[in-house]
From TrEMBL:
Organism field: Niastella koreensis
Protein name: T6SS Phospholipase effector Tle1-like catalytic domain-containing protein
T6SS Phospholipase effector Tle1-like catalytic domain sequence ranges: 2-272
Top-level taxon of origin: Bacteria
Pfam entry (one): T6SS_Tle1-like_cat
Amino acid sequence: MKRLITCSDGTWNKPGNTDRGQRVVTNVEKMYQCICSYDNSTEQPIPQLKFYDKGVGTSYSWKSNLLGGITGAGIDKNIRDIYTFLITNYEPGDEIYLFGFSRGAYTARSIGGLIRNCGILKPEYLGLVDKAYELYRMRDEYTSPGSDMMVGFRKQYAWEDVTPIKFIGVWDTVGSLGIPLPWYRSWNMKKYQFHDVTLSSSVEYAFHALAIDERRKMFAPTLWQLSDTVKNNPNHPQQVEQRWFAGVHSNIGGGYADTGLSDLALDWLAEEAHRIGLCYDKEEYETIKGNPWGELRNSYSPPFWFWLPVWRPITLNDDTRQSIDASVLDRFREMYQYRPRNLRKYVSIENDKPVMV
């Protein structure tokens, strides 16, 4: 058995990016750096093979970068690259971990859907990657995971009918791809929308860190919904949590010079993955130092001024398994100016202390 870990970065995110003249690292890149090559905690060391996929819009051409950033061009390649990595290395019994931020979160979740639809192909069928991806994108009754066509496809070309995914951990999935130009949006939404937002019951653990203070309308978050299989079975082993943190989009996924807030969201996902089995380099892991009072940046800047800001809705119910991180209450307590409107329903001040309602 081995672990296969993929790390998908957000738009324009790649090693070497800077903010305010300082070299910055996103949570995806930090996670990649933390993961060690072998888990030596067991009698038989477990290999951990990892793959880092830089964000859309990070080619050498500025034109390609701009096109990728505003249209989502390049996402197809990112998904196929990760799928190819899995096909090349996977064997039944291996554990799969998928991480992603922003459009990289979209990529990670799409990989989960692609695996559910087509399985993981045996290496001798690597030439069918484009065909498998085409089938995944078709979105009709004949190519749904349970259709006769796809059951037959998996039986003929894939290792298994249902390939379990051990863990999906994502930071602030943006379903619309964050595209601020309306004349691109309708084309992109049709081409790149998720099959649906329902989390497959074949995913064992799924965790989603979300930004309370992101107010750009085009950056509306896409939360998971539980499948009927999970909702109708209170004893189903799948574990899901979608947790809200203080900050805007990149305060959650990283990319700013001040990493106080983003390290909180990173530490949460890293701890959950470690609890399940993922092994880290101790020195790298100890560089993660969250701070509830870290700088909260303003992402509402041009060209997003053309749209009125909106508050993201927060709903704490069993269908989406949302929660609010304890660090948010710490920020409430110490910073009196921090009173986001979308938290008023759930947090009140009693005896000068914030409490969950």
